[in-house]
């Protein structure tokens, strides 16, 4: 099978290299990834500027493509014929830091996988907890990629060989533990984040305007069984199937019952 690997942490990330190596046991792998850390860009795309692509070596001597664009741009490049083949699956990660519950809407890692399923290609987003906590940056600390990397490769094979209905996005999150520490793997639903951000005013910036920090404390989550948060807290790998059906069907009935035609102007003032 043919596998496109990307991420949002940038092509130098050790998480990307770990999953690429594990996936090489399943077939042909191409890596197209951002040239720098693009975490939390969500589904951004580059429309106003050109995209530069540079071939760069990995520590094992193989080559990958470094792109001055977003994770979604990377998947787009592949789908538009940049590679000599179309991927059978998109794997995005391994992200350094979890992508759980509501966080997935901000995540560049998950956004790249969304692009896969939008294009009809099954996709996996894979993330690991960070030793330094939520706001740690860079690659500091010890990451245990092995278990989740090989788990991802085996799951990718099942996705592509039609053992699972596709296209589907699987969002994988792993505790940062070695094989002895990981207690299992389970299917989950997205849980609910508790954000504890505060508006903190700082000394003014160079342009004389006001300056703030708005993302601060380590976020928490609601303790609910069956959620991705709960599985990872129990030291298990969490797998959440995700789709892109954003329409609120119950909401359609509610809004229809308002009688939208009755809200049309017809020259009436708003009362
Ligand atoms: Mn990231």
What does this entry look like structurally?
This protein has one domain: Survival protein SurE-like phosphatase/nucleotidase (Stationary-phase Survival Protein Sure Homolog, Chain: A, 3-Layer(aba) Sandwich), CATH 3.40.1210. The protein is built from six helices and 13 strands. With 271 residues, it is α/β, with parallel strands linked by helices. α1 packs across α4 and α2 packs parallel to α3. The strands form three sheets. A nine-stranded mixed β-sheet has the order 3-4-2-1-5-6-7-13-8, with helices on both faces.
Topology, please?
Blueprint: E1 2-6, H1 14-23, E2 28-34, E3 53-57, E4 63-67, H2 71-79, E5 89-96, H3 108-118, E6 123-128, H4 146-160, E7 169-174, E8 185-187, E9 193-194, E10 200-202, E11 211-213, E12 220-221, H5 228-233, E13 237-242, H6 249-257
Parallel strand pairs: 1-2, 1-5, 2-4, 5-6, 6-7, 8-13
Antiparallel strand pairs: 3-4, 7-13, 9-12, 10-11
């Amino acid at each position: 099978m043919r596998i496109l690997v990307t991420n949002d942490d940038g092509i130098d990330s050790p998480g990307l290299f770990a999953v690429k190596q594990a996936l090489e046991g399943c077939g042909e792998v191409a890596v197209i990834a951002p040239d720098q850390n693009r975490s939390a860009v969500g589904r951004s795309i580059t429309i106003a500027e050109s995209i530069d692509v540079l071939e760069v070596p990995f520590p094992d001597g193989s080559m990958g493509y470094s792109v001055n664009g977003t994770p979604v741009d990377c998947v787009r490049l592949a789908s538009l014929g940049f590679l000599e083949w179309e991927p059978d699956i998109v794997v995005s990660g391994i992200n350094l830091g979890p992508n759980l519950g509501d966080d997935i809407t901000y995540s560049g890692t998950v956004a790249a996988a969304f692009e896969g399923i939008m294009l009809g290609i099954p996709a996996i987003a894979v993330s690991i907890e960070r030793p330094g906590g939520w706001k740690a940056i860079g690659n500091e600390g010890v990451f245990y990629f092995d278990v989740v990397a090989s788990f991802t490769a085996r799951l990718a094979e099942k996705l592509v060989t039609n053992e699972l209905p596709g296209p589907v996005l699987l969002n994988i999150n792993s505790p940062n533990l070695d094989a002895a520490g990981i207690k299992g793997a389970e299917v989950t639903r997205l849980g609910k984040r508790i954000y504890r951000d505060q508006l903190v005013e700082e000394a003014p910036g160079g342009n004389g305007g006001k300056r703030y920090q708005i993302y601060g404390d380590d976020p928490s989550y609601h303790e609910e069984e069956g959620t991705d948060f709960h599985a990872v807290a129990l030291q298990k790998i969490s797998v959440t199937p995700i789709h892109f059906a954003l329409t609120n069907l119950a909401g359609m009935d509610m809004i229809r019952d308002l009688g939208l035609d009755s809200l049309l102007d017809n020259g009436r003032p708003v009362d």
